[in-house]
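Problem 12. The chain below contains 145 residues. Write out its predicted structure in token notation.
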Amino acid sequence: MATHFFNRKEEEIILKAIKEAEKNTSGEIQVHVENRCKKETMDRAAEVFAMLKMHKTKLRNGVLFYLAVEDKKFAILGDSAINAIVGTDFWVKIKNNMEHDFKDGNFAKGLSEGILEAGKQLEKHFPFNKGDVNELSDDISFSNN
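Solution.
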């Protein structure tokens, strides 16, 4: 089941990476894990992005890390403002780096490193400004479909 995919220590590593990545940016990062992806991975990631209301951030600079664990599929989806700046090749590079760790079974490590790399770009293009608030939960979301 997706809700038991990470142990407590692994969840803490991922949550720490999210907090670190968001520390110096107005950008928002979320992780969603589910069992199966019954459609094209990016299409499902877009549905989850909408379900989590990531498109409602003030600056449209959210990033979703989506994993379908039983199907061994994952995607990274950035909102329109970040995609207009970094382009799709940026996400492909992060995804390729994460894939190496995933193949070795190091999902928490791969995710946390991908999150931190995304955070660097968010910080560069969407720096933290006084008064910025954390618009979305940092908790990992799960569904058991």
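Discussion. The mean pLDDT is 92. Students who got a different answer should revisit the alignment rule from Section 12.3.
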